[in-house]
Amino acid sequence: MMIRKTLMVSLTTLALLLASAAYAQTNILGEAIMGITKPLSDGLKQDIFTAMDAELKQEIYQYQGVDVRFTHQRWKVNLKSVCSNHKSDSRKVSHCTKAALSLFKLGCSQFQAKRYRTSVDESEMRMYCQAASSYRPMIIQASSIRSESSDMPKSKRSKLCNQLIAESIGGASSDLISRRNKACGIE
Predict the structure, then answer these.
(1) CA 115 remoteness from chain centre
(2) Beta strand 66-73 with 57-63: parallel, antiparallel or unpaired?
(3) First CA to last CA across the chain, in angstroms?
(4) Nearby residues of 144 by Cβ (< 8 Å), 6 or more positions away
(5) Is the pLDDT confidence value at 117 over 50?
(6) In whole angstroms, what is the distance from residue 121 CA to residue 139 CA?
(7) What are the strands, taking DSSP E only, across the chain?
(8) For residue 124, which of 109, 138, 145 has the smallest C-alpha distance?
(9) Is residue 2 predicted with pLDDT exceeding 50?
(10) CA–CA distance from 38 to each of 31, 52, 63, 121, 133 (Å)?
(11) Percent of the chain whose pLDDT exceeds 90
(12) Which of 124, 120, 131, 126 is nearest to 78 (CA)?
């Protein structure tokens, strides 16, 4: 009876030891599998974020002699961000916004011309085409600016004009456009 009890305790101990060893092997194997698959899952996660355009991104293009900057997220251009780096100079804003519209049209047509497009290409094409159809550039022509259109000193008028141009980038109310045009002497 005593031998049988000792044998049972030994078998139980042996079973526990084997289970522990199996767990350790499984854990080591699990860690090894995680070590191999984690970079793959991180890459997949990055691919998903790219496909969704989940993070706010800034684009900078040197186009038609000007830096055209804008941000986008979820495949939509933030129209208010277009050419925001030129806010302090109305002539640069005018040149930049015209270049931006041209860039959006070019991006749209280039993606449309691609014979084979990935899902990201399709999303970019929609983004550029949407921006090309909805973006309105700020156009100021030197000949249309009247220097004596207001009682305000020229430097103050110029500063106000630049400020109102910056505020109206990417879309503005008719009241703001009217104030901007008056301040800038645009007919």
Answers:
(1) 25
(2) antiparallel
(3) 113
(4) 185, 186, 187
(5) yes
(6) 31
(7) 57-63, 66-73, 76-78
(8) 109
(9) no
(10) 10, 21, 40, 27, 42
(11) 23
(12) 131
* Numbers of helices and strands, H then E, in the chain: 5, 3
Euclidean distance between CA atoms 41 and 1, whole angstroms: 57
DSSP annotation of 71 reads: E
Report the chain's mean pLDDT, rounded to a whole number.
73
Q: Which of 44, 162, 7, 38 is nearest to 93 (CA)?
A: 162
Which residue's structure tokens are 């101990």? 13
Residue 120: CB atoms within 10 A of its CB come to 14
- Say how far apart CA 108 and CA 127 lie, in whole Å: 8
Q: What residues contact 163, with CB distance under 8 A and at least 6 apart?
A: none
Q: Cα–Cα distance between 96 and 34 in angstroms, integer? A: 49
How many CA atoms does the CB half-sphere of 138 hold within 13 Å?
Answer: 33
The residue written with tokens 């030197």 in the block is 142
What are φ and ψ of residue 63, in 5° steps?
A: -140, 130
What tokens were used for 41? 């899952």
What are the structure tokens assigned to 25, written together? 């092997």
Confidence band (pLDDT; 50, 70, 90) for 25? low
